[in-house]
């Protein structure tokens, strides 16, 4: 799979790496929504899996559409909300997408970098809209 990050030891480390990449590209994430996936692959020594984030995507607008990767284990859907989003919570659209994806591919968690720079995670539909803060 092309466009993968370096290897990380955990899903959360890959999530943080992807969000740092987006924030490191300037202030575009303040006005545009970005998203990426976290996938796993076997490590070179095959003893444990490693995790990568996919290349962050945007459509230069307030909402990004991403295609679920096939053929690899996917552990997280990660996206930002631009500053035009007044709340730091997941949207109703985020919850709908979570429920739809979870029907076909259980086990994928949702992560949000909100306009205040907080990272929130949803592992169940009950976690929406607020999510659970992720310690940085």
Key terms:
136 residues; alpha+beta; Cytidine Deaminase, domain 2; seven-stranded mixed sheet; 7 strands; JAB domain-containing protein
Describe the fold and architecture.
It comes from Singulisphaera sp. Ch08. This is JAB domain-containing protein. The protein is an alpha+beta fold and 136 residues long. The protein has one domain (11-133): Cytidine Deaminase, domain 2. It contains 2 helices and 7 strands, in the order αββββαβββ. The protein has helices at 11-23, 92-104, and strands at 34-42, 49-53, 57-58, 74-80, 109-113, 119-122, 132-133. The chain is globular, with a radius of gyration of 14 Å. The relative contact order is 0.19.
What's a concise summary of this model?
Helix content is 19%, strand content 25%. Strands 1, 2, 3, 4, 5, 6 and 7 form a seven-stranded mixed β-sheet that branches. It is globular, with a radius of gyration of 14 Å.
């Amino acid at each position: 799979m092309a466009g993968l990050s370096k290897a990380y030891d955990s899903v959360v480390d890959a999530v943080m790496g992807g969000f740092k990449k987006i924030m490191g590209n300037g202030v575009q994430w303040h006005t545009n929504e970005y998203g990426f996936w976290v996938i796993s692959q076997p490590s070179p020594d095959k003893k444990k899996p490693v995790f990568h984030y996919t290349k962050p995507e945007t459509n230069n607008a307030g909402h990004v559409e991403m295609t679920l990767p096939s053929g690899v284990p996917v552990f997280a859907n990660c996206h930002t909300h631009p500053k035009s989003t007044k709340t730091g919570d997941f949207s109703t659209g985020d919850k709908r997408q979570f429920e739809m994806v979870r029907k076909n591919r259980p086990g994928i968690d949702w992560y949000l970098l909100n306009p205040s720079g907080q990272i929130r995670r949803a592992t169940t539909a009950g976690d929406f809209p607020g999510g659970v803060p992720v310690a940085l």
